[in-house]
């Protein structure tokens, strides 16, 4: 519960990993360099977003496998993998493999629901079962069972020279406790708590009982912990868009202000039929941002964050923003870098 007298315990960041279609390697290399910089700056965690049929990271597990070989300490997370695109058994194998390769640093975040633009992609994604697929929380439960070592089959043992296991291999014993659910509603928060997951709450929530973003997010945090076996000790990470300008150039400050100004109107009221609420981007000096965070009701309930880097900025901008978060904003919030 980071009040002005209580320190922030864990500091992370989230990147979308954009790239140019004509030169995708450059964008992926930029993402890997940003993750390595995060480790050098002492961040506790680095998280990647997930984008299908777009110019962002489509395979976060593969990207984090590469990142695991360029870093040695920083935790690596996904925020989040939409399970509507995934086979839970195969994903469990990939997650366990990367967790083993990273030395137990993987923090997979997932969500459920039909894939975005499902009517346009279902014939390519599920040509034979598109109308039968289950996109409910049951898909998460299956993944959790496989990751946590529950049997995937009733067959195991030797068959000729082949040896078969009845559970996902490799099995990484600690991975099950590092599974996160990215939720924006009371129902999702409750489900994640009941299934002993960790909870990712971002800059987008569903307006259910209020139209005040901080109050909505606070209700989700409390609902999650009320149903989690660990109660108030259950892990929650908050992901707001934060842009400190302490060492930014005049040109960067103008760019950041223009970016935030364009996005501010959507934070005024619920958007669309689903009544989604967006948090305003926090732009300014680290002291100004810290003051606004201490006024945020949900921030006062958590002790770890994964601040989201804004979309469409240049590599140099991300270097400046991350450096300011690690050297200015983090310490202002009482955080100490890990080296």
TrEMBL record:
This is Alkanesulfonate monooxygenase SsuD/methylene tetrahydromethanopterin reductase-like flavin-dependent oxidoreductase (Luciferase family). Gene3D superfamilies: Luciferase-like domain. Residues 29-295 form the Luciferase-like domain. It comes from Nonomuraea roseoviolacea subsp. carminata. Coiled coil: none annotated. It comes from the Bacteria. Pfam families: Bac_luciferase.
């Amino acid at each position: 519960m980071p009040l002005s007298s209580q320190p922030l315990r864990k500091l992370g960041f989230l990147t979308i990993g954009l790239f140019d279609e004509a030169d995708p390697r450059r964008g992926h290399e930029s993402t890997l360099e940003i993750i390595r910089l995060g480790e050098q700056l002492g961040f506790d965690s680095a998280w990647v977003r997930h984008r299908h049929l777009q110019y962002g990271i489509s395979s976060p597990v593969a990207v984090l496998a590469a990142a695991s070989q360029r870093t040695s300490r920083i935790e690596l997370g996904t925020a989040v993998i939409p399970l509507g695109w995934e086979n839970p058994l195969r994903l469990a194998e990939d997650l366990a493999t990367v967790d083993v390769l990273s030395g137990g640093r993987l923090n997979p975040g997932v969500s459920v629901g039909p894939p975005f633009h499902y009517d346009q992609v279902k014939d390519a994604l599920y040509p034979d079962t598109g109308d039968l697929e289950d996109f409910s929380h049951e898909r998460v439960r299956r993944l959790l069972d496989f990751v946590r070592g529950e049997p995937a089959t009733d067959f195991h043992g030797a068959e000729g020279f082949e040896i078969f296991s009845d559970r996902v291999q490799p099995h990484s014993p600690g991975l099950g406790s590092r599974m996160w659910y990215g939720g924006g509603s009371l129902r999702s928060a409750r489900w994640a708590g009941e299934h002993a997951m960790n909870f990712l709450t971002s800059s987008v929530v569903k307006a259910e009982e209020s139209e005040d973003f901080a109050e909505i997010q606070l209700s989700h945090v409390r609902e999650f912990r009320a149903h989690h076996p660990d109660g108030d000790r259950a892990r929650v990470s908050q992901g707001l868009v934060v842009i400190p300008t302490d060492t930014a150039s005049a040109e960067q400050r103008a760019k950041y202000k223009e970016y935030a100004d364009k996005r501010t109107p959507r934070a005024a009221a619920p958007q669309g039929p689903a009544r989604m609420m967006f948090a305003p981007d926090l732009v300014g000096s680290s002291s100004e941002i810290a003051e606004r965070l201490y006024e945020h009701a949900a921030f006062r309930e958590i002790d770890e964050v994964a601040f989201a880097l804004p979309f469409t900025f240049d590599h140099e901008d991300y270097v400046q923003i991350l450096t300011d978060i690690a050297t200015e904003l983090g310490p202002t919030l009482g955080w100490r870098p890990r080296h």
